[in-house]
Amino acid sequence: xxxxxxxxxxxxxxxxxxxxxxxxxxxxxxxxxxxxxxxxxxxxxxxxxxxxxxxxxxxxxxxxxxxxxxxxxxxxxxxxxxxxxxxxxxxxxxxxxxxxxxxxxxxxxxxxxxxxxxxxxxxxxxxxxxxxxxxxxxxxxxxxxxxxxxxxxxxxxxxxxxxxxxxxxxxxxxxxxxxxxxxxxxxxxxxxxxxxxxxxxxxxxxxxxxxxxxxxxxxxxxxxxxxxxxxxxxxxxxxxxxxxxxxxxxxxxxxxxxxxxxxxxxxxxxxxxxxxxxxxxxxxxxxxxxxxxxxxxxxxxxxxxxxxxxxxxxxxxxxxxxxxxxxxxxxxxxxxxxxxxxxxxxxxxxxxxxxxxxxxxxxxxxxxxxxxxxxxxxxxxxxxxxxxxxxxxxxxxxxxxxxxxxxxxxxxxxxxxxxxxxxxxxxxxxxxxxxxxxxxxxxxxxxxxxxxxx
Length: 454
Description:
Number of domains: 3
Strand order of the largest sheet: 2-1-11-10-9
Distance between the termini: 145 Å
Radius of gyration: 41 Å
Helix content: 25-40%
Oligomer: single chain
Structural class: alpha+beta
C-alpha cells in the first residue's frame, strides 16, 4: 500500500511540473530578469535618488556622437538669450552630414538654432551656437570640458559642439548620463528636447524649415528611413532625450522617463545600429519601470525638530525639509527598513533667515544611505538682547526680568513688613513701659499719701 501511495505522489508531481505550475516563491520576478542590449555600454540611472539601477561597461570611453549636443544646448541656454540673433559663419555653414542647411550670413535666433540642434541634430546649428556663445569652437569646447568637470564627469573630453568624430572626443555612459540629467533639468532644453515638431520661420536667406524629432519614443513611427524599415511605438512618460550616430556599432541614445514621479535616464552607447538603439533603449526603459518604485518618506516643509542657536531673539529655530524625501524602494523591500537621521548645524548663531540651510536629513534603507535632503529654517530669527549670546531668548529674558522683579518686590515687601513689625513691637514695648511707669508713679504717690515708711 505504501508503494502505491509513493507512486501516486510521483505521478502527481510529474503532472504538476509538466503543466508548468510553479510555487509562487520560486517563480522568477520580472524585475530581476537579466537585461541584454546590443550596445557596448549602457546605464539606467534614477536622478531623483542618485541611484544606478543597472549598468554595463558604464566607465568605458566611447564616442558620444550627437548626444554631445545636450551639453551644447545646456551651455547655450545658460549663457545666451533665446531671442538673440546669430549671424551664421562660413565655418558653421559648411558642416557635413546632419544639418538644417544654414547659409553663411543667414540671421537666425538662438531659440530657432536650438530647435535645429536638438530635433534635427543639426551639426551646423551646433557650430553656429558655439561661436555665438564663446567666439570659436575651440573656446566653446573648453567651456564644455569645464562644465563637464563641474558635473562630476571624470572621463569626458570634448573637442567640438556636435559630436562629429574626433580622436580626443570621448565620454562614458556614467558621465553622459550626468550631462543628460543636467541638460534636461534646464527648463529651456527640456521644452525643446521634448518637442515632436517645430517650424523655423523664414529668415533673410531661407524659407521656413519644418523640423521633426529623431526621438521616436515621443511620437512613435512606422516607416522606411534610408532604406531601412523602422517601427517604434510611442512610450508614455518619455519627456526628452537625444540620439547619436557615427556609423554601425556606434549608435547611441539617451531618454528621460517619468516613472511614478521619479525621473529615470536610460542611455546606450555603441549600439549595433540606428535601429537597434531603439530596441536597446526600449528594453532599458522597461527594465527601469520594473525596478523603480517611489516611496515617499516625508514631504516638503515637514518639520524635523528645532535647532539650538545663540545670539537670537529666540534660542531655537524650526527645521523643515527643503524638498520631498523619497527613495526607490524595490519590490520586496519592507518600508520598515527605512529610517531617517537629522544632522543639525553646529554653533548656529543669529541672525537666521527663513530658508537658510541649518542641517540635513539622511534617508537610510537597512542602514544604507540612499538620499540626503537639506533642512531649512522655517522662520526668521533676529539678533537678540544682551543675554542672547548665552542662549537665552528675548522671551526668556522677559520672564527672567519678571521673576527677578517679583522677587525684588517680594523682598521689599518682606523687608517693609519686618520694619513695620519692628516698629509695631517697639510701639507696644513703649506703651508697656509707659504704662508701667504710670503704675509705678501711682504707687509712689499712694505711698506718700499714706506716709508709709516701707
